[in-house]
Structures
1.
Amino acid sequence: MKTKLLVWLCLMPCLRLSAQEAEPAFMPQGVQVRSTMLGIGHLNALDTYLSPVDYRGTALRFLRENSRMTRRFHGRLSVQHMLSGYAAYASPRSEEGDELLAMWQWNATWHYHLPLNRRLLLMAGAGTELQTGFAYTFAGSNNPAQARLSGRLAGSVAAIYSVDLFRRKSFVRWQVDAPLLGLMFSPEYGESYYELFSLGHHGHHACLTWPFSAPTLVSHISLEWPLRANTFLRVGYLMDIDQRQPNHLKQHEWSHTVLLGYTKRLRILP
Amino acid sequence: MKLHFPSLRAFSGRLRALRRAASRAILYIIGSSFLLLAPLSCVDEDEFDNSPRGNFEALWRTLDEHYCFFPEKERLYAVDWQAVHEQYGAYIQDEMTREQLFDVCARMIRELRDGHVNLTSSFNTARYWDWQEQAPLNFSDSLLRLYLGTDYRLSCGMRYKILPDNVGYVYVPSFDVSIGSGNLSAMFTHLSLCRGLIVDVRNNGGGLLTSAQALAESFINEKQTGGYMSHKTGKGHTDFSSPIAIELKPSTGMRWQKPVVVITNSAVYSAANSFVCYMKQLPRVTVIGQKTGGGGGMPFTMALPNGWKLRFSASPMYDKAMQSIEDGILPDHVMNLQSSDFHEGKDTMIEQARRLLTE
């Protein structure tokens, strides 16, 4: 009961509900929902391989999302492809010795649709993630940079709520992804990249990740407001809590990003 | 007897209700799991305050968890790192100035007697240079000028020339610059008619390990082990990986096949120390001079809360016999610069090397 209440509290943020019962088209068959968003936000990064101090800075984020319904499970399964990336410039508290981060991620997620009523669609599913990137400190000597490479299986829940906003049928979308099992690359605790690449050391570089070693959560809430028949303005907030503890190292990138973009609903030709 | 069958419609309705209930249950389970995931512990490091105490503790702990020579320093110099904390921690006070804090930290890291352990601030660099400052350098740049003159060749920082007795001489002051096989081939082509080669690395404080390796690989014809390297696998003072061989592969360019004399002194450190380690084991190579300064640990750099940079040895290196090279390498022939030779404008070591190569 508490969970239900929490879900409802999260999904009903002070929006005017329509008294009329219109048929919402969350994601109709034969339509591809394509979003492009750009965002800016705050990032807090830590990598004890590079330095034991936190780096805080600004991140610019790009997000491209394609979703469509499939015909599987009686047409209740949708597939979502997401390409996202960010570049960030961060400084430690002392503001001496900055850090540059760049990350690129591709997700493919399959959601099973469970419409609760005509306004609310709940979705649950799973997907795969591939992530690559790097962190570079301007102060390091033999440990100036750290590479990121990981592949993960993730669980995903999402909800779409149809709401009339300024007399236009809009959609509030909330999606939470959490990697559940994966593999990531990491040098060993005090291992230099010289040993890795010049000497060809093959140590424990493929690390298993799961929620207790890499508690990661991505929450994305957005509002889609129609500009034209098939074009929506999309405003969103993305919370990306990405954490890992490979080989006794500690790494995190916590970011909070405000996103702005558009969504197009394109009819797929049969 | 009349059997009662529920109508198909009712059955279908119940099935739908059941499916709906099951779907909701699955959703609630997944949703609850996510809500449970959210408060999972943050992966974070205890961040020390930017105060004298906070910076001192950050310095001590970073070394405690990452420095690689504690077992060796304990054996050679009886360094007890916990006792060092108690000793120098007693000097830390909230109202002390940054210069005073730096002084305490500098004295603390000197306990490790490691030239690779430095603390760098905007106003000073804490260091341990006894290995070169407390020993005679046996090197004179004035004498070097007499040998090199002004018409020497210069490539990648290496100064080379053919001496009057047809002996090649190359002075390598640093490995800071990347050395390519093309550079080495050009140098060896120029020196190819010489009877032998003197490689003088005196005062070479190191640089790129790959450059030291590239130069050493010009003197071998077969792949061989130059030494070993290890790294820390955890925070414990003895958490090390099994050593991995540093393989020297013959240079793809021109390779030197004649006798070589390497000249060292106490200021040979870090990558230059590794170069001497690689060269000493080669059959046609003789090392003369003094024991090198050491520096057999690859350094990492990390920051303190106030922005001071801490450099420390992170990965220990060993010679082919798995002996640590942190404390320096003894030459085949120990010799010093003689003042009588100096007054005659002669470098004792270069003269001895010439004799070894011409006799």
Note: Chain A has three helices and eleven strands.
2.
Amino acid sequence: MTTNILEVSGLKTYYKTRLKEKVFAVDGVDFVLEEGKTLGIAGESGCGKSTLALSLMGFYFPPLHYGSGSIQIHGRDIMKLSKEQLRTQISGREIAYIPQAAMNALNPTLRIIRFIEDIMKEHRPELTKKQVWDMAVERFETLNLSPKVLRSYPNELSGGMKQRTVIAISTILNPKVLIADEPTSALDVTSQKAVIKLMKDLLDKQFIRSLVFITHELPLLYHVTDDIMVMYAGEIVERGTAEQMIFDPLHPYTKKLMGSIIVPEEGMKGHKLAAIPGTPPNLKHVPAGCRFAERCSYAQDQCRENNVAVKEVDGRQYRCHFDTGTLKEWYANEQS
Amino acid sequence: MNAYAKYFVKKLFWYLVTLVIAVSLNFFLPRMIEGNPVAMIVSQMTKGMTDSDTIKRVYETFIQEFGVDKPLWQQFLIYVQNLFTGNLGTSFGLYPKKVTDILASAVPWTIGLQLPAILVGWILGNVLGAVAAYKKGVFDKVIFPVALFVNSIPFFTLAIIMLYVFALTLGWFPLSGGYDFQMIPQLSFEFIGSVIRHHTLPFLSIVLVTIGGQAIGMREMSIYELNADYVLYSKLLGIRDSRISRYVFRNAMLPQITGLALSIGTMVGGSLICEIVFSYPGIGTWLFTAIRQLDYPLISGCTLLIALSVLLANFTIDIIYGFIDPRIKASQMEDQ
């Protein structure tokens, strides 16, 4: 019996514009992450992936605001905690975050070890400087990072090294969930590989129990995560195992998204790449019907008029008016 | 020799070159002003004299005494030779006072006026700027335009307005000078009281202008740093706000420290206009008098003092900065 480590239900968060309009970038998201599992979140730019990642941390900084819904870590709703409780009990200890631009995530005038000391002063005040040092050296060595990094200033590290250092710092308190927001997007392929290996190490050595990996590079997710969830216009449109999502997508958006990338696997030879025409809708004026209808080649009148709830079929979830049989038939026809 | 020592020697060399150029310009530029200083002085001294022979003899004595009969290059060599013995020559206008004596009597007034004013203005300005950036809202909306307004008033206008309102109209403060001129400088309460009363207006005018400039700079820097990625990242690791504020303001202070060091360096040359408007007995007023009388040695003496202190301040900043800011140190090393 696996336990749910992260349970998100009905989460709505919005950006407040200068004109006091509310733009819901995360609009009613539900998902569950089981202990020991990894989940990838994919989607185009502007679909709310990064906002979701930030929202999961429980802290909201203007212009991002919390709307409604709950985020439970091990059954404890962190949205019901005070800011101080959240800071001292959750942030960094239960759930940790790797920002999109890890390049600038470190204070330029602080040596790495000083920053780690500051984190420990908040969460493990009983440790002496020497103990923190020993602990940091041990952790860095375990993760194949040179302990020399600890004495460096951020500007003395290369981009890939900085990214891995940020990951090591984020996970130094062994958080249960790690949320990685596009940790590889600014890196070259070699550094990407090193980062991926580091994430796998963290999971193997049980420094973290679960991982939420956000990216727009789908092939990467296939190799890293158990499940993939696709977001569109602030909503989840489909979730399934990585295998299902890549080779047997249900939702037309997932289908198009997978059709626009290369997955270096067998059976993909001769596969034509196709871009998805159009752009995601402006979230200031959300369409009444299915949010993808405008760009969907299978859309019918009912799609444009009514939105649809997430359906669950054979343990898979998708958000579409049509049943799986119809969708698969269409896809099969298209192929031939 | 390590990289830092190399850097130090290289910098020192360039500063010496600059100093040589400055010394030459200090000597030649005043002597290129149209006019004959000796004629001006002699015509004043011989007022009422009718015997043209006597006048001629007085004139020739002065020409010889001042050494202006020799070719310019020879004068320059004598000037440089004297410099090495610390002799800046004899003033024309206040003959037979030595330039060094005049400067020695003026420097305490200038420093006594400028140093406290710059320090007070700098500290208040930075605190206001930082608070405005941190608190935002109404406080910022009031402080920022006011600072911008004060900073945009040309200094001489501000000084004259203050002089007109507080000294002339309200009569709260004396109009000019460093102390009541009928007093003899001594360590009595009366004399010190007089000095303070004369000090207040020029002091306040410099403080006001300094606050304006510093507050604007600090506000901009703080806003930039507050939005830096490391602020969000540190928060999400559970680091308390007070510690993050310390990161932010330390980083925002760095350029401000340069500003402080520079204004302390340029302090001796100081606020010429302020001293002239308030007829304050500092370097500025002497330089102004010297230029009007074409008192070459005194002009060169004042400008040499100013050049020296500016160079020294810049050099000190260049050297110290490497220790405070790791980024600058790195770029210094790369220069090699």
Note: Chain A has one domain: 4-109+153-335.
